[in-house]
Amino acid sequence: MAGVVKGGVAVVTGGATGIGFALARQLADRGMKVILASTNRERLDKAVAAIRAEGGTAVAEVCDVTDRAAVRALAARVEQEHGPVDLLCANAGGTTTGTYLEHDDGDWDWSIDVNLRGATNSLQAFYPAMAERGSGHIVLTGSQTAYAPDWVLQHGPYVAAKAAVHTLVFTMRQEAAERGVALSLLVPAGTDTEVLKGQRSRPDRYGSAREGGLRMGENLPELGTEGLWLSADEVARRAIVGIDANLPVIITHPAMRPLVKHYFDRILAAYDTAAEAAIAAGQPA
């Protein structure tokens, strides 16, 4: 497939609502058979019915991406019933809110499992078949918060997990390309989704849901008012444009650039400081 979205089979995790549903809907409109995976049967059935009503081909699959065995079973079932997967959108995610002192072990475990291991479980399940046949495209959904981690505070486990997803794409992209598989990182920011309701699908083994709040970071660059908040449909449209172009990083909210620059400028400044200290000590910078 190598970056061109047309026909074939797509799997979208977290596909019942938000960005996942918008992606599934637009991929179906491109002629793809879309497998929507999520934890809630009712929401899945509603999403599939909506796509079918528009003439698309969609299938519902209940699957919890934190369950490695379930994701591998999903991959095997899709391959057997629908054929090779051309596009995997590992999009499932959710966040907790509250201070670090308020977050308990269950909060950390769930956030890392759904946001990071959900991505790695999906990779382990679907990537080998793509690599074996030498074709396919994988999109991992990250988050703008990983490139501006002190922009919105008090959901630290989510930000940490998404930052790991970002680095995973870069560590893996060259290897995947050598095997004929494209790999892209989707980086959405403010989007009209239900991400803050994600804990409604939190399994009981992680304990009760975290009920806290978010707050904005301080001493950050001023942002304009345009382009900071997009619909899920618009984010999905921009995502598919990026997939078509086989971009390594698909940015959906360019208006966020000042915050990203501020973050990386501080990191680069630390290198300058280290170089200056080395030179002052008579050592090579």
Could you characterize what this model shows?
With 285 residues, the chain is an alpha/beta fold. It has one domain (9-256): NAD(P)-binding Rossmann-like Domain (Rossmann fold). It has helices at residues 18-29, 41-53, 68-82, 105-133, 156-178, 232-244, 257-280; strands at residues 9-13, 33-38, 57-62, 87-90, 137-141, 152-153, 182-187, 215-216, 249-251. Strands 3-2-1-4-5-7-9 form a 7-stranded parallel sheet, sandwiched between helices. A two-stranded antiparallel ribbon has the order 6-8. Helix 1 (18-29) crosses helix 6, helix 3 (68-82) packs parallel to helix 4 and helix 4 (105-133) packs parallel to helix 5. The longest helix is centred in the middle third of the chain and has 29 residues, at 105-133. The mean pLDDT is 93.
Order of adjacent strands in the largest pleated sheet: 3-2-1-4-5-7-9
Helix content: 40-55%
The CATH topology turns out to be Rossmann fold
Termini Cα gap: 45 Å
Strand content: 5-15%
Mean pLDDT: 93
What is the fourth-level CATH superfamily? NAD(P)-binding Rossmann-like Domain
Biggest beta sheet attributes? 7 strands, parallel
Q: Which CATH architecture is right?
A: 3-Layer(aba) Sandwich
CATH class type: Alpha Beta
Can you tell me the number of structural domains? 1
Radius of gyration: 20 Å
Give helix and strand order, one letter per element, not per position: EHEHEHEHEEHEEHEH
Shape: globular
- Strand tally, please? 9
Helix segment count?
A: 7
Q: Helix/strand-derived class? A: alpha/beta
